[in-house]
Amino acid sequence: MDSSPAKVMSTRRGYWLSMTALVVALPAALVVQTWGSIKDWRSQFLRQPLSATLGQPIDYAGASWTVTRITRLAGSEGNAVVLAEFEALAADPKALGAVPCKVRLSDGSGREWQPTLFADPMVRKQYPEAQQRSLCGGMAFAAAEPGKPARMAASFSIPPAASSLTLSIGLYSALPNHLSVSEPRT
Amino acid sequence: MIAGLGGLAASAISFSMTLYEAAHPPKVPVVQAGQQIDTGRWFVTLRTARVGTVTPTGVPPSRPVQLLMVDLDVVNRSATPNNVLYRTVTLSAPAQKLPMPTVYLDRDKYLAGYFNPNMPERLTMAWEWPAGVSVPDKVTITVTGQIYKLRDNLYGASGWYDRDPVATVDLPVEKAL
Amino acid sequence: MMRIMRSVLALLFAAAVLYGMQLTRPLYSDITSPIVSSGGMNKRVQASAFALSLDSARVARVLNVETFGKSKTYTSSGVWVVVEGEAEAKFETLRLTSGEWLSGSGIRYVLTGRLPATIEMMPGDAYQPGLPRRVLLVFEVPEEAVAGGTVVVARTKLLPLDDEIRITTDVSGKDIEPAITIRRNEERPPWTVLPQR
């Protein structure tokens, strides 16, 4: 066995070099392995707003979108009801028909509401046409006639005191980009 | 080298054990109807078997069916509610490919949901019998045991696992006149 | 000689440490258990995503359910526990799909599936941020599981490390009413528990 001082030094250096490399390489491998999942996980959130104005068409996810109206009503149970009506003119409605859609309403304090499954009785009474419309997604595009926009609506149940409301519409194919429209100030 | 030989020996032993077990199936005790069977997770008491055309709900089905209905009492002995009875109580003879049985709660004359721990219930399990095949005068029900593992081999999670049958019960089939 | 002794000692030490770790390793259900917030009756208990308060817990031998003028009687080999309270989502719309009765001895009972769907229990509703809503939970438990029981509510049973609220009820197991009626209402709240007290 060669035990000259120089040889011992180089073995030691090799050992420590390997140890340090391990400390770097192991986490790196983990990150590389999970990067895909992290990206998938991040992409399901509405992160990049595309500011739109009420009544103005805007191109998003292969269609021209217009949020036509955001209405606030007094609900039947002491709540407020927000009715959002919007439409999308798609070049290829079939392609959009299979893409899930996410509609949310958020307020200034970071609270977020999902559309209600059934519209409030108030909507049924005052806006029967909007109640006929389907929620954003496949159904709406399937029902649209060629060349005509797909008309959609979402209604939300929120506390009357909620203010600075923003409507977000996101198609899964275009996330994290999403449309963002603010409630008009009255 | 030694590890390799050890592994080889282990697989040889396990293989021959499997062969031995397949050649000598364990004798499953035959239990009388009305006698309580302890499966580990459940107490099961098989009562009677009969043929009918209407489920215990009393609502006649939309198309005519032949139902083999078995009445039984169960008690869930575990600490959590459960409803997977069809793996514990199975129809073993005659060997007939049948869809999964539907379980009815006698108390409500309606579909049974979860069985809560320590709450004895009487139920009816109904198997839909294929049309055109006559139901025999006697059926054999096999009751399978389950054991509780504090840590399973994969995650170290606790759970109940199916084991060998603990009893078979022969039931005469009452036929409607 | 010293060297061998040292190796043997090191080996023994390692074995002891490993054995200790094996003995004290937590169960899988402990590692993935929900994050619990607990409290008592008539208190608003907060979890990170929702809040819950319970104001009534009653026990009865028989449960009658009245929907649209029709009445059905539900018997039990144990007793019925009818719990009412209020739940609220804090930041985003959510559902509370899991409700359990945890007996004093640690046995779990799920919300009964025997009541007709017209009686909307907690899992049937969506909870909107800022809009508290009345909740109804009905359990069927053996008589000995009543005293010291705890109501456990979570968004789902399937998500590990999610929020869970535990509220210890004030039922003693001695005050058992002969019968309770749950009547479905046309307006809010969607049910009434009778006889009123």
Structure description:
The complex is a heterotrimer of chains A (186), B (177) and C (197). Chain A is α+β, with helices and mostly antiparallel strands. Chain A contains five helices and nine strands; from the N terminus they run αββββαββαααβββ. In chain A, a hairpin with a 5-residue loop joins strand 3 and strand 4. The longest helix of chain A is centred in the first third of the chain and has 39 residues. Chain B is mainly beta. Chain B has one domain: Immunoglobulin-like, CATH 2.60.40. In chain B, strands 1, 2, 3, 4, 5, 6, 7, 8, 9 and 10 form a ten-stranded mixed beta sheet that branches. The model of chain B has no long low-confidence stretch (mean pLDDT 87). In chain C, a hairpin with a 2-residue loop joins strand 3 and strand 4. The termini of chain C are far apart. Chains B and C meet through loops of B and strand 8 of C.
| Distinct helical segment count of chain C | 2
Q: What is the N-to-C order of secondary-structure elements of chain B (H for helix, E for strand)?
A: HEEEEEEEEEE
Order of helices and strands of chain C: HHEEEEEEEEEEEEEE
**Share in β-strands of chain C:** 35-45%
CATH class of chain C: Mainly Beta
Principal-axes geometry of chain B comes out as globular
Radius of gyration of chain B: 20 Å
Write the layout of secondary structure elements.
The complex is a heterotrimer of chains A (186), B (177) and C (197).
Chain A: H1 5-43, E1 48-51, E2 58-60, E3 63-74, E4 80-90, H2 93-97, E5 101-106, E6 112-113, H3 121-126, H4 128-132, H5 138-143, E7 150-158, E8 166-171, E9 177-182
Parallel strand pairs in A: 1-9
Antiparallel strand pairs in A: 2-3, 3-4, 4-7, 5-6, 5-8, 8-9
Chain B: H1 2-23, E1 30-31, E2 36-38, E3 42-52, E4 66-76, E5 89-93, E6 102-105, E7 110-111, E8 121-129, E9 138-149, E10 159-174
Chain C: H1 2-24, H2 28-31, E1 35-40, E2 45-46, E3 50-67, E4 70-74, E5 79-89, E6 94-95, E7 98-102, E8 108-110, E9 126-127, E10 133-141, E11 150-154, E12 163-168, E13 176-184, E14 191-194
Parallel strand pairs in C: 1-12, 3-13
Antiparallel strand pairs in C: 2-3, 3-4, 3-5, 5-10, 6-9, 7-8, 7-11, 11-12, 13-14
